[in-house]
Amino acid sequence: MSGLSRRSLIGAALALGACESRAQAPAAPVEIAPLRAAAPFPLGVCAQVSHIEDPDWVRLAATHFSQLTPEWEMKMEYIVRPDGSFRFDRADRLAAFARAHRMRLYCTTLVWYAQRPEGFEKLDESRTSFGRAFDAYITAVVGRYRGQAVGWDVVNEAVAEDGEGWRESLWASRLGDFDHMRRAFDVARAADPEAVLFINDYNLETIPKKLDTFQRLIERLLAAGAPVGGIGCQSHIDASLPSGVYTRTLEALARFGLPIHVSELDVSLVRAGRRPGLEARQADLYAEAMGAFLALPARQRFAFTLWGLRDKDSWLKRENGRDAPLLFDDQGRAKPAAAGLADALGALKPVGSLYGNENRAL
User: Fold this and answer.
1) Largest CA distance in the chain
2) How far is residue 221's CA from residue 361's CA, in Å, rounded to a whole number?
3) What top-level class would CATH report for the domain 6-353?
4) Distance between CA 145 and CA 180 in Å, rounded?
5) Which pLDDT score, from 0 to 100, does residue 2 have?
6) Mean pLDDT across the chain, nearest whole number?
7) Any residues with CB less than 8 A from the CB of 27 and at least 6 apart, and which?
8) pLDDT confidence of 43, banded at 50, 70, 90?
9) Angle formed by the axes of helices 245-254 and 278-294, to 10°?
């Protein structure tokens, strides 16, 4: 980097942003090369149909990302109508967008404890059993995107938040706490023999017992012959996470030898207390996450997915308007967080580009 460290470059970016903020001018702290060209693995982003209708979002996403995950319109909450019928209009639009922009399609999620569709809760057992309806749903959804989807989150967030066993759910109560998971993997494999099937969870970095229970669940599924093909680490973290914790989490999950998907990465400032210095810490965490992923064997680097493109697209921003958890600000400009991740990939442009002109006086 021409003798300039990443930390000093990010510091320059933060200082420039502060200067411009005081002058009430828009901050443009960093310039990065196209990330998708620099990454030796798929780099993903989540999307809703409203995003792909926004030309600015489309340009930014197409420049930097090579994989697309539907944020929620491929989940039961959208697909399953109250009468039990299915709708795929929005999911189909997102799949078509991925094809048109040469992005891989990654799909989430088939079985999630948090969802209890009315169509399942009011199922008429005289017409079909709960088990057959469960199988039919997975078969219909996975089969519809067979040959398009490279992978699926089959079982999502199955481990209790405190790590004490597994979560209660409609699926567990009707089909068995372990058996519904094993069944989901088997049915998904039959529906698409080529897609990589994942188990996915969050807070694995911050709750050691949850990480341990998650690993034991993976062991049990594999021992039972479930076709678990990959491990998803959601990576919803905040800027207070100590250095090294994220790296150790990926190392723990990598011991299975399965492909790893950093599946929903964002780094909250608000949840860390939104105090001075957090933007630099956020940048360091993005760099650490990318560095930890790059350190995995190439065969285990399935994809690295950001859970949102611009800050205003983030679920965390909807939760608290003061948060700024992503690589790009509300206007789509790269932030110091982007500098951290880009530098880990070798996609950070020279320091002069911070200012638009190397000879510009501050």
Assistant:
1) 77
2) 61
3) alpha beta
4) 22
5) 38
6) 91
7) 16, 17, 20, 21, 329, 333
8) very high
9) 20
Which residue of the set 31, 73, 205, 264 is catalytic?
A: 264
Q: Are 210 and 167 in contact (CB under 8 A)?
A: no
User: Is the pLDDT assigned to residue 178 strictly greater than 80?
Assistant: yes
Two tokens, residue 128: 């079909």
pTM of the shown model: 0.90
pLDDT band per the 50, 70, 90 thresholds, residue 274: confident
* pLDDT value at residue 237: 98
Closest CA to 76 of 171, 213, 187, 175: 171
The question of whether 157 is a catalytic residue gets the answer yes
Name the pairing type of β-strands 260-268 and 236-238. Answer: parallel
Residue 80 pairs in a beta bridge with 86
What was the pLDDT predicted at 253?
Answer: 98
C-alpha dihedral over 136, 141, 145, 150, to 10 degrees?
-100
What tokens appear for 178 in the block? 């372990």
CA dist 40 and 349 (Å) reads: 18
Domain residue spans of the chain: 6-353
264 catalytic residue (yes or no): yes
Residues 157, 205, 279, 288: which is the catalytic one?
157
